[in-house]
User: What shape does this take?
Amino acid sequence: MEKGKLIILSGPSGVGKGTVRAVLMKDESLKLFYSVSMTTRQPRPGEVDGREYYFVTPEEFQRNIDNGNLLEWAEFVGNRYGTPKDKVEQMREQGKNVLLEIEVNGTLSVLSKCHDALSIFLIPPSLEALENRIRSRRTEPEDIVQQRLNKARIEMGMQDRYDHVVVNDDVERAAAEIAKIIREN
Ligand code: 5GP
Assistant: This one.
């Protein structure tokens, strides 16, 4: 059996990676496996442990780093996020295309280790659109919103490090473009 691909879906916070991913996951022909990350962030209302993330304490996260359990990890606006390593390899060996939804520093770290990874950067039609999205989520206090927006501006400047850049002007259209990229690469 052919080994599955390693696909990185990245883009600034609030761009709609989760929504696009949900559309992609419904397409069984893509044989996607979503890699659930570990984070020290508190769950948002509706988030379930083991589904959106594995929610862990800072101590637990540090133990996972020390034990070499993470393929990559990064700090993002005061919290840590990382990709559990074992599952990624296991699933690829089973022919699944593993999808990582991670920020830019984690991406650079994966790209330096896995030269066969396919990287895709999702961008908003404009920074105003992004700000509206982050605000409409209404889950974060103003200072965190500001930090996420600043981070978004920095991340937007790193899009040329990716193999493909896709504009999230319409969820279905963006997902279709990404599906095509996955099939053709
Ligand atoms: P959020 O708090 O909005 O869920 O995630 C914040 C940022 O961390 C997003 O850009 C998200 O894609 C990224 N992220 C989620 N999981 C991981 C991970 O395992 N590693 C890295 N490097 N970034 C992650």
In short: The beta strands are 6-10, 32-34, 37-39, 53-55, 70-76, 79-84, 97-101, 118-123, 164-167. The pocket of guanosine-5'-monophosphate is lined by residues 13, 17, 37, 41, 72-74, 76, 81-83, 101-103, 106 (CB under 6 Å). The CA atoms of residues 4 and 97 lie 4 Å apart.
